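Subject: Sanity check before I submit

Could someone independently write out the structure tokens for this chain? I want to compare against mine line by line before I put it in a report. The sequence has 296 residues.
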Amino acid sequence: MQFDDDANLDTSEVQDVRGSRIPGGRATIGGGIGGLIALLLALFLGVGPDQLGLSSGGDQAAPQPSSLGQVQESCRTGKDANTRTDCRMVAVVNSVQDYWSQEFRSQGRTYTPAPTVLFTGQIRTACGAATSAVGPFYCPGDRKVYLDLGFFDELRTKFGASGGPFAQAYVVAHEYGHHVQDLEGTLGRTQDGMTGENSNSVRTELQADCYAGVWAHHATTTPDPATGRPLITSLTPADIKDGLDAAAAVGDDRIQQEFQGRVTPETWTHGSSLQRQQWFDQGYRTGDPARCDTFG
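---
Independent answer below. Compare away.
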């Protein structure tokens, strides 16, 4: 995946609070074997910690910006995105939101942008407190995506994914798929508490995978509003393979087999490896959000 070296990045879409101290005490993520299994099942590409049962009570104070301001200082152009992971996240967020803004506009609707918050260790959100162990998540309470960049190392070391820049982009695009669901009013379907391969929770996650694929289909053709040129200039078959590999690595069946030694479809919350790959591919092949109706 290659970005236009001369493109200007919009850092206002990413809030960098890495290294900040969080007021109000420590976050909790549940305990015991049951909590561990729930965490493993929801570790990747989920929604807010309140929906995972991983939030702590207490003051939900907003995170305080890091004095370093790494993203704002260092991530200026596409060239920076081609060399730094945090700058790459800025570029991907820009590209994903450019696409959805234009897609909503084509339907006569208005897309409301959502910032991504980069943090380290733990964070307090409108959905509760969370640690890095929760993995990337979208919080509908404040309409923000939360991401600790250290997760990408775990994606390779703990889950065996090949990694790569596009695998990282897929993570971000999936979370913005949840934001689109939130704007469409479908995200609330996950709050029925049901699990299983045909549950609304699984259907919601698979639709977000499909939406990530839709963005990938348009990534090299959606023009940057500032330049009129696409921010992403190259997306290769190897990049797409990395995305599919990441989707497979975090399928419920693979995670269950790895961490509990057996597969129990009745407890699935995200879908199988094959399902996740299939729905990402559906979005990528068609480029049509209407073909992502996992509830139909």
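---
OP: Matches mine. For the report I'm noting this point. The longest helix spans residues 85-106.
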